[in-house]
Amino acid sequence: MSKFNEIIADEKPTLVDVYATWCGPCKAMAPQFEQAKETLGDAVTALKIDMDKNPAFASRYGIRSVPTLMLFKNGKVVWQQSGVIPANELVAQSKNFM
């Protein structure tokens, strides 16, 4: 968790996909996340976090449903939304915080 805190403390936005392996919508979200990550390139740090392997993370940020997408900047959550989100919307949200 300390490495994660170090990453999100950066001024560069960090895009996080919180998912679970058993989650159907999470599987649908995966290619959208990958496409957004590819489009944004080095402008953001992109991470995937398995909620079942990181229950403390889910608890800390009050995540109750997956997929949940989050953007961090300077150590703070600047945007969060649950559900399958199109890649172009993820890119647009990320650009709001660059």
From TrEMBL:
Q: Which residues form the Thioredoxin domain?
A: 1-98
Q: Which InterPro entries match?
A: Thioredoxin, Thioredoxin-like_sf, Thioredoxin_CS, Thioredoxin_domain
Q: Which UniProt keywords apply?
A: Disulfide bond, Electron transport, Redox-active center, Transport
Annotated coiled-coil segments of the chain: none
Highest taxon above the source species: Bacteria
Q: Which family does it belong to?
A: Belongs to the thioredoxin family.
Q: Which NCBIfam families match?
A: thioredoxin (TIGR01068)
- Name of this protein: Thioredoxin
Q: What is the organism of origin for this protein?
A: Pricia mediterranea
